[in-house]
Amino acid sequence: MGRRIAVQKKGLGKGLGALIPGVESSADSPGFKVEIDRIAPNPLQPRRSFDEAKIDELAASVRDQGIIQPLLVRRAGERYELIAGERRLRAARKAGLTDVPVVVREAGNGETLELALIENLQREDLNPIEEAAAYQRLQEEFDLTQEEIARRVGKSRPTVANSVRLLVLPREVQQLVASGKLPAGQARALLGLEGEAAIVAAARDVVGKALSTRQTERLVAQLRTGGRKRRKAMPLSDPDLRALVERLQRSLGTKVRLLHQSKSNRGKIVVEYYSAADLERIVHLLGGTSG
After folding, report:
1. Helix, strand, or coil (residue 6)
2. What 3-state class would DSSP assign to 263?
3. Which of 138, 211, 246, 279 could form a disulfide with 273 if both were Cys (CB 3.0 to 4.6 A apart)?
């Protein structure tokens, strides 16, 4: 995979030069120009949809100002392959440019996907499903753990884990999330239901009624219990209990809940996991054995 890339929050908004050592912005080093026809799209591009209206707006800016920030490319024989800057490349084509400024970087497939993901995350260009799929590709194709992915993109491990969970949803629900009709928070709440039909039906209800995350959680609880009274979760108004749960969550790196039966004063500790690898990690932390 090559060297790690640490993304600091203060670098956001400054372009790839603020994120990647050795890649300077156009203000410092314009690089050199390459004919557009010699640049192939990035096959590892994590983004799957592009807003054509925004591309048109960018094309108008390119006609007036040119390409302000060079595209990041890697060599592919006699041609080049795009690493980052697909929106700029598309806009340049629409603007009628024949060549564009580039910075050439030697990068393998893993680093190429990583850099493309970083650029899209920096600009908040990915919808939640595209972001989740990109994390999954980094995890499966390049054998990265969620902790390693989190470090590379400057996010927390639970954020990455929660993102990947969206890919468990039925295809129709994923499409609602990708289109922005169903927020990711409400979509994750639907994972508490069993069966594709139940999840799809609930998703349609959430979208139709514009339910909040809290309202969606209540809907899921009602559907799970068939309208019966739910078992109460242990109240966390007690600062000692709250501190205990928070300590468990920090130690295990995942969500922890307490389920309490008030009459018997008994209950359960529920520890969530999001993949087989995540389960193995938690078991190891609890002192168990794996494999």
Report:
1. coil
2. coil
3. 279
* Catalytic status, residue 57: no
Instruction: Give the up-direction half-sphere exposure of residue 112: CA atoms within 13 A in the CB hemisphere.
Output: 22
Question: So what's the pLDDT on residue 4?
Answer: 38
Q: Exposed (0-12), middle (13-18) or buried (19+): which is 30, by Cβ within 10 Å?
A: middle
Q: What span, in angstroms and rounded, lies between the C-alpha atoms of 157 and 147?
A: 5
For the record, the structure tokens of 275 come out as 């993949």
Sort strands 99-104 and 266-271 into parallel, antiparallel or unpaired. unpaired
Q: Which residues, listed in sequence order, are joined to residue 101 by a DSSP beta bridge?
A: 33
| pLDDT 10s digits, 161-195 | 899 999 999 999 999 999 999 999 999 999 888 88
Q: Which of 257, 264, 263 is CA-nearest to residue 234? A: 257
Mean pLDDT of the chain: 76
Max mean pLDDT range (24-33, 91-100, 228-237):
91-100
DSSP, collapsed to helix, strand or coil, labels residue 28 as coil
Which residue is catalytic, options 78, 86, 106, 217? 86
Give the helix, strand, coil percentages of the chain, each rounded to 5. Answer: 50, 15, 35
pLDDT for 46-75, tens place per residue? 666 676 787 888 888 888 888 888 888 888
Q: What pTM value is reported for the model?
A: 0.55
Vertex 46, ends 45 and 50: CA angle to 5°? 85
> What are the chain's domains?
9-153 (3.90.1530.30), 169-225 (no CATH), 239-285 (no CATH)
| DSSP for 34-90, written as a single string | EEGGGEE--TT-S-----HHHHHHHHHHHHHH--SSPEEEEEETTEEEEEE-HHHHH
